[in-house]
Amino acid sequence: MFEGWLTIVVFLPAAAALVIALFLRDDNRVRWFAIGATVLNLVLIAITYADFDRSAGGVQMIDRYEDWIPVEGLRAEYLLGLDGLSAPMVLLAGLLSAVAALASWRITLRVREYFIWLLVLQTAVLGVFTALDFLLFFIFWEIELIPMFMLISIWGSGRRHYSAMKFVIFTFGGSAFMLIGILALFLSSGVDTLAMVSIPSEGIVGIPDRVAGVDLLLPAGLIWFLLFAAFAVKMPIWPFHSWLPDAHTDAPTAVSIMLAGVLLKMGGYGLIRISVGMFQETKDFQVQDVAWLLALLAVVSIIYGAIVTFQQSDLKRLVAFSSVSHMGFVVLGVSSIVGVGGTVTDAGLNGAALQMVTHGTITGLLFLTVGLVYDRAHTRHIPDLGGIALRLPLITVSMMIAGLASLGLPGTSGFVAEISVFLGTYAAWEWYTAIGAFGVVLAAGYILWTMQRTFFGPRNDRFDDLEDANFLDMIPVAALVVSIIAIGVFPKIVTEVFKVGISEVVRI
After folding, report:
1. Comparing C-alpha atoms, which of 254, 485, 474 is closest to residue 367?
2. Which of 121, 185, 236, 381 is the most buried (most CB within 10 A)?
3. Residue 31 domain-assigned (yes or no)
4. Is there a contact between 467 and 393 (Cβ–Cβ < 8 Å)?
């Protein structure tokens, strides 16, 4: 079956990048064409999300082309599809891509190249969330490295070359382990497919069913750790996190939005789709066996990330370290795969998936607001700021909404996600959950302290001439604020879709 719809959604940004490269020369036209392409793609994605049949479940809107790589014995397919796990992630990627394009309208250096790379990056991340062939998934996973490296190293600041290279080294190292894991699965006896899921309507029996109870080329536990290494680096969780603060600090605002809002979620998505979805019934090893390790790494990431966040004096670096802490909640939710009595459960996984979406919008708004502050004050150094709330009321309100959502204020999406993680995980790991919940207290501390030092306190005369955000600045801000409040008040928008997808991943 080849419906073509998902292919259009995934490759529309890349096609727009090609049009810019071949036909557009005026910087202004490039800006508005790129913004228009991302907004159009968001509209198509919203239609796709609304069209997803919650009652039917399974993989929908399938685009399939067999033997698309003419190598005998490879049996790789061009296979795109949407299910309850990937649909909200695609919606998140579309929203934040449009926000990133709108946040880039002030770019003046090599404008054509900048938007070309930004659009290629969007295609790569959409491909990761829709690819259901393991090789195709890996190709999209690797393509993302190129535009991200270029965007940081050319349009970044500070030690941008160092930060871009560090990002590539860490991510490429994790990808090397992933490739070994993919090959070990594919070359195992009885595994004659690279399909990541089973699709009965297409006659596809995927890897999760093929590997159940059979001897693999390498021990199943080793393959799991090879794949997990790539996801742990991308999220990132402690101790694989050190590339993230450097990349965020030196990246342009729009790139930080994409990095924190979408790229980190690739790791969480892979953790659920692959580390959980493929290793529940493998011989001599199941993901349940290492659930305790996931819980331990999650708690360390939550507490360590929060403590280090307190020590930051750069606004972007502060938000980056807070991401390490908040992505720990995703891993904590995944660790609940072992429920009471050792049974497989999806309770915390739903919270983990929701945390990925909510963290994407909240952190996207935080980085967007930090960028607006920097554009006007020309500094992100917290001790140099203070007393700017009266001069920048719209930006201050934006930061307050993002900050309060980040610390889990009821009525915002952050609260719904975190409480879902805690309720789902407590039955399996009481003490780990209790320690992880203390991270919310620490988050309240560093968020409120940062707000007080940055926006309030004695007025600084040097900031008397600052101008608040204009109408164009507020469009992406408003889009993210609406999404944060909407999910906080009516979480069913996302949770009913995730529930369908997660139940199929854990097969309960």
Report:
1. 254
2. 121
3. no
4. no
292: Cα separation from own chain's centroid: 24
Total count of domains within the chain: 1
110 assigned to some structural domain: no
For residue 236, whether the previous peptide bond is cis, meaning omega lies within 30 degrees of 0, is yes
Does any domain span residue 448? yes
Q: State which residues of the chain have pLDDT below 70.
A: 1-2, 72-73, 338-345, 507-508
Q: Which residues lie closer than 8 Å to 430 by C-beta, 6 or more apart?
A: none
Q: State the DSSP string of 471-503.
A: HHHHHHHHHHHHHHHHHHH-THHHHHHHHHHHH
Q: Are 133 and 78 in contact (CB under 8 A)?
A: yes
How far is CA 66 from each of CA 1, 120, 195, 313, 324, rounded to the nearest angstrom? 10, 25, 11, 53, 39
Is residue 299 situated within a structural domain?
Answer: yes
Which residue from 182, 189, 263 is spatially nearest to 224, judged by alpha carbons?
182
Angle at 46 between CA 44 and CA 48, to 5 degrees: 70
CA of 266: how far to CAs of 110, 302, 437, 490, in Å?
A: 28, 19, 24, 25
Q: Is the dihedral of CA 36, 53, 363, 255 positive or negative?
A: negative
Residues whose CB falls within 8 Å of the CB of residue 264, separated by 6 or more in sequence, listed in order: 234, 235, 236, 244, 323, 327, 359
Helix (H, G, I), strand (E, B) or coil at 286: coil
Q: Torsions phi, psi of 353, nearest 5?
A: -65, -40
Rounded to 10 deg, the angle between the 315-334 and 430-455 helix axes is 160
The model's pLDDT over 325-352, given as tens digits with 9 standing for 90+, comes to 888 999 998 888 865 555 566 778 888 8
Q: Which domain holds residue 484?
A: 289-508
**Which one-letter amino acid corresponds to residue 59?**
V
Q: For residue 480, what pLDDT is reported? A: 92
Q: Is the pTM of this model over 0.90?
A: yes
Helix (H, G, I), strand (E, B) or coil at 219: coil
